[in-house]
Amino acid sequence: MNATARSDEHQALLKHFFDGKVLGLARAITVVENERAGFQELLHTVMASGPQTKRVGFTGPPGAGKSSLVAAVATEYRKLDEHLGVVAVDPTSPYSGGALLGDRIRMNDISTDPGIFIRSMATRGSLGGLAATTKEVVDLMDAFGFDRVLVETVGVGQTELEVTAAADTVVVVLVPESGDAIQAMKAGLMEIADVFVVNKADRPGAPRLVKELRQALHLRAGSALQDIPAHHGVDLGQAMKKERTTDAPAKEPEGWSVPVLTTNALTNEGVEKLLDTISEHRVWLEESGEIEQRRRARAAIRIRDVVDREMRRVAWKSDDVQRLLREGVEEISAGDGTPYSAADVILGTLLR
Amino acid sequence: MNATARSDEHQALLKHFFDGKVLGLARAITVVENERAGFQELLHTVMASGPQTKRVGFTGPPGAGKSSLVAAVATEYRKLDEHLGVVAVDPTSPYSGGALLGDRIRMNDISTDPGIFIRSMATRGSLGGLAATTKEVVDLMDAFGFDRVLVETVGVGQTELEVTAAADTVVVVLVPESGDAIQAMKAGLMEIADVFVVNKADRPGAPRLVKELRQALHLRAGSALQDIPAHHGVDLGQAMKKERTTDAPAKEPEGWSVPVLTTNALTNEGVEKLLDTISEHRVWLEESGEIEQRRRARAAIRIRDVVDREMRRVAWKSDDVQRLLREGVEEISAGDGTPYSAADVILGTLLR
Predict the structure, then answer these.
(1) Would you say the ipTM is above 0.90?
(2) Does B1 touch chain A (CB under 8 A)?
(3) Of A199, A242, B16, B20, whose CA is between 20 and 30 Å from B61?
(4) Same structural domain for residues A43 and A70?
(5) Is A128 in the same domain as A274?
């Protein structure tokens, strides 16, 4: 397709998108997911008017019942007549056996509701650039004008933490079987949680986990932002703290005490309370000015993502660089170099 | 520490390393994991003599019993008096409840054996640069002179597939509960497997999974390398195919038929057969010239990893770029731009 035809196609797509037709959203997602030519211009256009909606992230280990909980939460929001976007990212789900089947059925219940648009990125777990692309899909959902966007990720690694960090409110879902509070801390979940939920709260061990989490949160109170893990050379905690020291809103936000709730997604127990808590967090975000700080931190990270991706793209499409890469491989193969010596040569041609 | 002191420290470390003292290896791993100043020079030095050992990767979904199987395999190799390095990367393990406890105990059995050096990277799952750093730790293990290095990763995403691709022989471990062959295909495991193992083979569904995998492999025969997922703009399959079209060894390797084995790691059933198969795969790798092709593909990917990381590092340490980043955030915050417009400005100063 030539640039004019593409531009026409994107114009048509954007018209649907801004008219609130899900067809336009679905097509925009396809363009972004596949990084088709012009996808960055498309994102620039839809994001020009800034964030439009509330983003709530749900994360936690496999088997914590996140999908069930998201389905239960979505059902409650629908009772309030909210229009919802749901992005589910679960690279482990291809392996989900019987345990997740119930979640699937529940998800199917909500997926036939025209008031909910669900995008599952489960099968894309092994493709490149997951984190950046997934965040961009959430941006598309945001810009489309839903009342709320729910993002579900498995808290198993870097990628998922990054995606979760793209939400305004992060709900970390645990179950007694998922280990103790110390393990949640080690996994970096303590640092990103705005709300803890102990799901399947009727199981043995739930009260103990609740107690441990409260104790751990109490110990960490006041230093919550300091240990958010660094990624791509960006420290989210640092970025947030740095933004706070700028001369923008001088108001220091009053602290938010991370609550530990209990739910049973299958019986709906505790789900209303969770919605209330998410609303309270929203009020805090806006009244304290924290929402603006988070958006700034997010903007900084997003700029870096785009720059990093584009640097890679430009670098590796160069014929010169490809030639040097081949020569480097030959040298290494001949026992005459290492990836470090070969990379040095390439970097010499790339960097100003 | 100044550069001279650091250089002295690294010299001392390297002496231990090349003398075969695990203290030197352990210190080298610490330097690399923390990306301390000079870590790339260190890697360049130890890798200068090329790959030294056989690398066997084990991957598969959480709960497949990979750790038990690795422990069983390690125990067998020890009977053959091999010295082993083991790298275990499992971002999900912080959540491993009772199910994994057995694996842990088994691992503890082998971890007291001075003939095995085990490095677990389980707690580092949420930190940045996991894939590149982990591959570098495997390189250190390789260079140290073990008879064999076993690498265990959870096959849940991009990072883990990348790490697995750093092995000469990739064993994909499944259990009946982990889903069917179609799901393994979707997750990209079919493309990276040199050997399939259906573990916990006494469970219902095991014979069916074996049959399905064999059928799926039969259908895919001959096209196995074409669909290896792309990452960081590098397509491993493409890289391998590209290397094959160079004028290096003209010999087209005879195909390797991916076998589907059954094991029960806890009773040791099938473990000897797995070792035999890994040996057969090794013979095939060397006789067909495939090992050289794989090493070239690996070298190409490693060069790219190093270049990408260094581009990011150089870019974001620049004061100019940091200033533009702050300005970009301000503009976005003021509703006057998007990450894409801000990134454009930064890219203009970075790229030749």
Answers:
(1) no
(2) no
(3) A199
(4) no
(5) yes
Cβ neighbours of B347 in A, within 8 Å: 307, 310-311, 314
Per-residue pLDDT reduced to its tens digit, B3-53? 777 788 899 999 999 999 999 999 999 999 888 989 999 999 999 988 889
Instruction: Say yes or no: B26 and B97 in one domain.
Output: no
**Residue B300: inside a domain:** no
- Whether the CB of A232 is below 8 Å from some CB of chain B: the reply is yes
Residues 88-117 of A with CB under 8 A from B: 91-92, 94-98
Is this prediction's pTM over 0.90?
no
The verdict on a CB contact (< 8 Å) between B126 and A343 is no
pLDDT tens per residue, range A316-336: 999 999 999 999 999 999 999
* Residue with the two structure tokens 């677990």: B120
Same domain flag for B125 and B186: yes
Q: Which of A159, A157, A155 is nearest to A171 (CA)?
A: A155
- The CATH code of the domain that includes B169 is 3.40.50.300
Within 8 A of A230 by CB-CB distance, chain B residues are 127-128
Tens of pLDDT, residues A173-222:
999 877 777 777 766 778 789 999 999 999 999 999 999 999 988 887 65
Q: Which residues contact B304 (CB under 8 A, 6 or more apart)?
A: A316, A325, B232, B233, B234
